[in-house]
Design a protein that fits this description.
The structure is a single chain. By secondary structure, the protein is an all-alpha fold. 66% of the residues lie in helices and 0% in strands. The longest helix is centred in the N-terminal third of the chain and has 36 residues. About 7% of the residues have low confidence.
Length: 135
């Protein structure tokens, strides 16, 4: 009887090990299939209106406290910029990072940083000129 129990235990152990391996491979296969289905979209391909914008008072946002806005108009115009452009301007002018450093950190090209800076500053100039003419 002992001999049969030992064989049963060995058989059960082998079966359990085999089942563990099958389950592990099935999980890996499932993860690989789901990863392939995920579609990524680059930041440049997103329409301008779909990019999130800060709407709260920037002075309440902890990460933005480095900016000391002298005019409320500038704070409002800055808040209307897309988050990525806000980040780039913050890194450039507050943290005083070089475009190459920012590009590495954001995983993009330095030219993209220059383009985003140009677009952000252009938008700020337009918004401030509009608001300045209205008042």
């Amino acid at each position: 009887m002992n001999h049969q129990q030992d064989e049963g235990d060995v058989l059960r152990a082998r079966f359990t090990k085999w089942l563990d391996i099958v389950c592990y491979r099935a999980k890996l296969k499932y993860l690989q299939k789901t990863e392939e289905r995920l579609e990524t979209v680059s930041f440049e391909e997103l329409p301008e209106g779909s990019q999130p914008v800060y709407t709260d008072d920037l002075r309440k946002i902890e990460s933005m406290t480095d900016f000391d806005f002298e005019e409320e108009r500038l704070a409002d115009a800055f808040a209307k910029l897309p988050i990525k452009r806000q980040q780039i301007l913050t890194m450039l002018f507050v943290e005083e990072k070089k475009p190459e450093e920012i590009a590495k950190e954001l995983n993009c090209s330095p030219q993209h940083v220059y383009d985003q800076r140009y677009q952000a500053l252009k938008r700020l100039r337009i918004d401030l000129a509009k608001e300045g003419g209205e008042k």
